[in-house]
């Protein structure tokens, strides 16, 4: 049981950091921004905005996910091969599943949900909405954990509901 918990934790950390890093790169490098701006071109956030992505971006995120899963799984097979079962490795990453079920699906919606002090650790839907706003394009790149944004100086708390404008700035 503890191996499954350890595996889920390691996969969550590696997957979330790699997602943060790729998302940050999508905003910082013009060649990647040219693909990612398709996602940010939405002027109204709806749950369908999550599907508004350039095919190249989809390929990059799929490849990132595949590499991270293979790397973490390889380490666990090497360390714990005597104690592993298919369910422990091929089962759903329970932490990521629970977070996505509870909060991530509201990121691209008009529903403002802040986590208050918990935003020190977890990205709230409101923080992601701030990320999509024209006025705050370089904040809150994280998916699940906001600790990556804290480490890179890009975290912005969602303290109060603001009138946000979405889309791509003309500047």
What does this structure look like?
- This protein is an all-alpha fold.
- The chain contains seven helices and no strands.
- The chain has helices at 2-28, 30-40, 55-80, 86-90, 94-102, 125-132, 147-152.
- Helix 1 crosses helix 2 and helix 1 runs antiparallel to helix 3 (55-80).
- It is globular and about 55 Å long.
- It starts with a helix and ends in a 19-residue tail after the last helix.
Q: How would you describe this structure in keywords?
A:
171 residues; mainly alpha; globular; 7 helices
Instruction: Please bin the fraction of helical residues.
Output: 40-55%
The total beta strand count reads 0
**Helix-strand sequence:** HHHHHHH
**Uncertain stretches of 5 or more adjacent residues:** none
Main sheet summary: none
What's the alpha carbon Rg, rounded to whole Å?
Answer: 17 Å
* N-to-C CA distance: 53 Å
**DSSP helical segment count:** 7
Approximately what portion of the residues adopt beta-strand conformation?
A: under 5%
Alpha-beta content class: mainly alpha
Identify the overall geometry: globular
Average per-residue pLDDT, rounded, comes to 87
